[in-house]
Amino acid sequence: MSTTSGRVKVAAQDGPRELDPHQWRGDFPILEKKVHDQPLIYFDNAATTQKPRQVLEAMEKLYAEHYANVHRGIHTLSEESTDRYEAARDTVCRLLGGVSREEVIFTCGTTEAINLVARSWGDQNVSQGDEILISEMEHHANIVPWQQLAERTGATVRWIPISDDGMLDQEACGSMLSSRTKLVAITAVSNVLGTINPIKQIIDAAHANDALVLVDAAQSVPHAPTDLQSWNADFVAFGGHKMLGPTGIGVLYGKRQLLDAMPPCLGGGGMIRRVRKEGFEPADLPDKFEAGTPPFVEAIGLATAIEYLQQVGMQSIAAYEQQLAKLAMERLSAIEGVRIFGPGATDRAGIISFQIDGVHAHDVAQILDRFSIAVRAGHHCAMPLHLRLQVPATARASFYFYNTSEEVEKLGVAIEETQKVFRKK
Ligand code: PLP
Predict the structure, then answer these.
(1) Segment 220-231, tens digit of pLDDT
(2) In CATH, what number is assigned to the domain containing residue 152?
(3) How much distance in Å is there from the Cα of 320 to the middle of ligand 1?
């Protein structure tokens, strides 16, 4: 069994390689699907990503050949499941640059990971008069748990402003940090604007003020290398389904001394060392935060997804998606009446939210669907950001490494056709 404690070694990272999406597309059965008689163009990757055969097969194999509940059985199948579950944790440790197994908690998603910190660390460490800083570009998953914490404790949530072009106002962030700041909770990449935030600088500034930092990495871990030792983040949350893995699995990374001091969030089986009528004694990390039967098949699916992504190469994925975003920005901004939100291509990941003059975002998405192009429309779980942008809704195209430049060109053509439909009306 690989359940020993301690740091997990990582192999040296490859540099970026030229990425050819056609080398990988064949692994994704759904990309062969036709929608309205045309090949599917899937540009809704910020919401969730498609799954390669390898992930589907790994989960099916686990169910077919090794399935039994983890940690509790002495029998062979239970050991086989447990070994694979704990090996999945090792894979996550390596992805994050070689963190310790005790620092990696499996959750059911990014949202649960952030809520865990707000409940467990927050209730223990935050009180009346304290401040939590979040930015105007956060997803609701990194807003509401802090508002709830503020309601419970009398603390205040303060908003770090963004500029009109969707960049974090770092100066304002610096001046908002004070002895009252307990935590900065910030997204690494905006799920609407695609903005790549300067996480390391934010963390350094927060630490200089004795504040902790939680990074919402839901949109960054799937798309670029993550080296937590260089970030020096206190907490990092991300999920499996946005990185080729299944739904129902996510990760909370936390520094060991912080997690050690935090009370368990959920109570139940698996998270205890012993239970008596008088009370219970929690288990060691990471089990302390994994009450009940964990999503172990999903964790194994996630580990397979991570191995797949590492084969493609995280640096190559980041570079390729930036190229696609640049191409899309050039193509879309050349169309009169299209407004793109967020920064220029150099500060942006593969996410582009836009508006077509005179056409509601929902209509845009509906018409693009007729061209077999899947984009999302709405507030993308970022209502405060849309209020800041003064738009009720945007349409969002978000890329992954299996998307192609030909698909981006088709998006441009479909947007032009959408404009024609509305001009006729
Ligand atoms: N944070 C960001 C930046 C996201 O984009 C999302 C999902 O869109 C989440 C958090 C929440 O992820 P989940 O719904 O998988 O928990």
Answers:
(1) 999 999 989 899
(2) 3.40.640.10
(3) 22
